[in-house]
UniProtKB/TrEMBL annotation:
Keywords: Amino-acid transport, ATP-binding, Nucleotide-binding, Transport. It comes from Nocardioides mangrovicus. Residues 6-238 form the ABC transporter domain. One of its GO terms (molecular function) is branched-chain amino acid transmembrane transporter activity. GO terms for biological process: L-amino acid transport. Belongs to the ABC transporter superfamily. The lineage of its organism: Bacteria, Bacillati, Actinomycetota, Actinomycetes, Propionibacteriales. It comes from the Bacteria. PANTHER family: HIGH-AFFINITY BRANCHED-CHAIN AMINO ACID TRANSPORT ATP-BINDING PROTEIN LIVF. This is ABC transporter ATP-binding protein.
Length: 238
């Protein structure tokens, strides 16, 4: 495996007696954006939460490069190179944009490198620089999504997990999110994307995993899957 590759083998997630994910296996390499698609309840969000240690999980292998994630407590996952953009953004509405971003670097020393990362985030999202002293709760939904992504990038992750980043956004802002994901991929960041917006998913990713009832039932190139009748039925309801 390339250094920094995410390796997942036979991942399982159970909530009490309910199985949310069963036997899921996949890899994500540096500079690769992989999508997870499927209907609601297919196990997509549970997969991301399992990688973050936020859901009860079992796995034969769960590694990011040299790090055995199965041995890492949830509160330390960010230190080992994973950034997480949760569904619903969850920014700290009563704190300023700048403070939200600084909190994203809590696992690092606040030094010149951290300040340089902040400048990189401001370059990706100029509106955050303009509104850096404004309360996060006063931002629009699109601006809050940019803040959530920027906050996750402040830890300088090797792998970025994104859960529904286009939710509630206008088509113009969805296009801006796509532009940012392409820039990040070009910088060698590995990304795992859960997204209901079919256009964004197939444009942003090179490969997709198709999940149904907690299992990965199909994998393939995004360019091929977007025209696959079975995928259209499972994912798009067509």
């Amino acid at each position: 495996m390339a250094a920094g590759t995410l390796q997942v083998q036979n991942l399982g997630v159970r909530y009490g007696g309910v199985t949310a994910v069963e036997g899921s296996s996949f890899e994500v390499a540096p500079g690769e954006c992989v999508g997870i698609i499927g209907a609601n309840g297919a196990g997509k969000t549970s997969t991301l939460k399992a990688l973050m240690g936020l859901a009860p999980r079992t796995a034969d292998a769960l590694r990011l490069g040299e790090v055995d994630l199965a041995r890492v407590k949830a509160r330390h996952v960010v230190r080992h190179g994973i950034g997480y953009v949760p569904e619903g953004r969850h920014v700290f509405g009563g704190l300023s944009v700048r403070t939200n971003l600084e909190l994203g670097a809590h696992s690092r020393r606040w030094d010149d490198q951290a300040k340089a990362t902040l400048e990189e985030v401001y370059t990706l999202f100029p509106v955050l620089r303009d509104m850096r002293e404004r309360l996060a709760g006063a931002l629009s939904g699109g601006q809050q999504q940019m803040l959530a992504i920027g906050r996750a990038l402040m830890s300088r992750p090797r792998l970025l997990l994104l859960d529904e980043p286009s939710m509630g956004l206008s088509p113009k802002l969805v296009g801006e999110v796509l532009d940012v994901l392409q820039v990040l991929r070009g910088r060698g960041l590995a990304m795992l994307l859960v997204e209901q917006n079919a256009w964004l998913t197939f444009e942003a990713t090179e490969r997709c995993l198709v999940m149904q009832n907690g299992e990965v039932v199909m994998t393939g190139r995004s360019a091929d899957l977007r025209h696959d009748p079975a995928v259209r039925r499972l994912y798009l309801g067509l």
